């Protein structure tokens, strides 16, 4: 784990109210794996006091990107950063997606809304491992979709403005018969109702799958106990999302 003051290199609006912020950190860029995250102290002042967690979206050379939409004070302050501003970053944190497992050779990557965040790095790693990847992206409407850095993308929008009208799990049900349940593993990130629907699909179909969770978090590295995830079929009742996650086997947690 690294704590570093990092210079912002650029901030760009990549879709309607969705921003990519890039910062420079040689060490984070060279030690991150897909679905790990950074915890950012955005400003030195009182507001926002707590760090804010973001998945690592892309890495190019020594530049690390995050993607976010503005939901409160922290993300609004991030959007206003300019090249040369400094942010205090801890990372990479958390357990990455288990892309290396021999139990599958094809991955279905699913991103609901800003759940697209861990997918570009996952796509790149799968490519390097010689595994196939198919991506299913979902958003409320076409202007919220960000499909850069992804491969074999199918799209679902709630209002039908692009791709399938409906949600990503409906679209997965349509595509699933083309995949071997034994040799395919799903990697997902998105809102809890989407992950619940996915969990139920995986239990019905026998397909393996894991999710990167994005629930509320405090310290980000196991000290504050502020990120419990309820476990199923385990002697322990809870795991810590920041330290034992954010990735979890979807058959082993209660959402
Ligand atoms: C491991 C992890 C990775 C994440 N990756 C991303 C990412 O890649 N892109 C991204 O946009 N967001 C991501 N998030 C969520 C992000 O951390 C929050 O949206 C952010 O902290 C909000 O900060 P804020 O100060 O702008 O909003 P706040 O003022 O803190 O909150 C604004 C509103 O958003 C709600 N909120 C805050 N945090 C969360 C959360 N974690 N889940 C649901 N609702 C929340 C609050 O209850 C409130 O209603 C991630 C969270 C985790 C734990
Ligand atoms: S966020 Fe503090 S223990 Fe997980």
How would you sum up this structure, described in words?
It is a single chain. By secondary structure, the protein is α/β, with parallel strands linked by helices. The two termini are 28 Å apart. The strands form three sheets. Strands 4-3-7-1-2-6-5 form a seven-stranded antiparallel beta sheet. A seven-stranded mixed beta sheet has the order 11-10-9-8-12-13-16, sandwiched between helices. The chain contains six helices and 17 strands. Helix content is 19%, strand content 36%. The structure holds flavin-adenine dinucleotide (FAD) and FE2/S2 (inorganic) cluster. Flavin-adenine dinucleotide binds next to strand 4, strand 6 and helix 2.
Secondary structure category: alpha/beta
What is the global morphology?
globular
Number of helical elements: 6
- The proportion of residues in beta strands is 35-45%
State the low-pLDDT regions, or none. none
Major sheet characteristics: 7 strands, antiparallel
Task: Spell the H/E element sequence.
Answer: EEHEEEEHEEHEEEHEHEEEHEE
**Terminal CA distance:** 28 Å
The tally of beta strands, per DSSP, is 17
Give the distinct bound molecules: flavin-adenine dinucleotide, FE2/S2 (inorganic) cluster
As laid out across the biggest beta sheet, the strand order is 4-3-7-1-2-6-5
